[in-house]
């Protein structure tokens, strides 16, 4: 299974925010830290805010922060929110579809994949926060 760049950016965003708790962070800062597109990141942040993963503050001195503590943000929920769907194959035009067991197997594998992610929080991604902060500081 391969996750989209959109989900990758969403995970990077919440990880960065988790490592910068207590202050508002700009989208530009996150984009610089990861060397990624600020325009693309803006779309990701908008969805993360709509879904309740981040809070935004507008205006001078504004920015974003996690909506809840990192240990309360579930990785599986984040991936479900940002991925468009989990159909790994399109069997609609396949002649063998009515008798094929592959779609069922792939659906089971997807459920297992998401179940593993459900067992982790954003805090689990940042297992070494001091190392993460040093790495981000080097990029600033």
TrEMBL record:
Q: What is this protein called?
A: Rrf2 family transcriptional regulator
For this record, the Gene Ontology CC terms, alphabetical, are: cytosol
Point out the coiled-coil segments of this chain: none
Gene Ontology terms, MF aspect: DNA binding; DNA-binding transcription factor activity
Annotated keywords: DNA-binding
- What is the protein's species of origin? Caulobacter flavus
